[in-house]
Specification:
single chain, alpha/beta, Rossmann fold, 7 strands, 15% strand, disordered C terminus, binds zinc ion
Length: 254
């Protein structure tokens, strides 16, 4: 529904689609037109979350399995797509909630496609869990995008949603650390599962907007496994190269 304030804002700052730049003023809060949303290609290939080697259906490769906790990583769209980058950046820096909803819709579309191609989860024992944001950053941004995305995915796909993880200390933003090894160490031991009884024996769909080195997802997976989760599947909207991740992080985590 359009409020007077919304109407006035649209008049002063017309909202244009991030993809094709048509005016979206009639279309509630959205920032991408439905044609551009529908045109975003879903990813079809899979790579190990940690070493990037090609794998079947996103599983962590046998070599990385030895010292990681995440079982699988699904990446819905390609970061090479300029519209995907615009959606992520605009959502992060301008705090646009509707874009997190759009991401959820696209990610639900991706999972439905996986289901139709034979990947199956037991819906009754699957829980969607968002990657937590530290309280200080939550206050600064006003919302945890992973929570909005996770909530959206769970309602699209009728899956159970639980916001169960917390950050137990504010780690140094990854972008301030240059080498990969220290970045991995920096993210170790920062997440905690608040209600282990809700994850015991469950398959967890661990949701975030973007993945960087995979270390944050892996630390959440560690906490969830420690709480008794059977399997942890990371699920992100997009995953960039290390270089583009770094740029993205530098701007978003300051
Ligand atoms: Zn458009
Ligand atoms: Zn690997």
């Amino acid at each position: 529904m359009h409020t007077f304030k919304g109407w006035l804002l649209d008049l002063l700052f017309p909202r244009l689609c991030l993809g094709c730049e048509i005016s979206l003023s009639d279309n509630n809060e959205s920032h991408v037109c439905s044609a551009c949303l529908a045109g975003i290609k879903m990813k079809n290939d899979f790579a190990c979350a940690f070493c990037n080697s090609p794998v079947v259906a996103g599983t962590t490769c046998p070599f990385c399995r030895a010292d990681h906790f995440l079982d699988r990583l699904f990446v819905a769209t390609s970061y090479e797509n300029p519209l995907v980058q615009k959606i992520i950046k605009t959502m992060k820096y301008r705090f646009v909630r509707s874009l997190a909803d759009d991401m959820a819709g696209l990610m639900a579309r991706y999972l439905e496609r996986r289901f139709s191609l034979g990947f199956n989860i037991d819906r009754g024992s699957t829980v969607v869990v968002p990657v937590p944001l530290h309280r200080r950053r939550l206050n600064w941004r006003g919302f945890n995008q992973a929570e909005i995305i996770g909530n959206g995915i769970s309602s699209y796909l009728k899956l159970n949603f639980q916001n169960l993880l917390v950050r137990i200390r504010n780690h140094v933003p990854q972008a301030q650390i240059s080498d990969r090894q220290s970045r991995i160490a920096n993210a170790t031991g920062i997440s905690k599962c608040m209600e282990p009884e809700l994850v015991q024996g469950k398959t967890i769909l661990l949701v975030d907007d973007v993945a960087t080195t995979g270390s944050t997802l892996d630390d959440c997976a560690r906490a969830l496994k420690a709480a008794g989760a059977k399997e942890v599947i990371g699920f992100v909207f997009a995953r960039g190269t290390f270089a583009s991740d770094k740029k993205l992080l530098q701007r978003s985590e300051k």
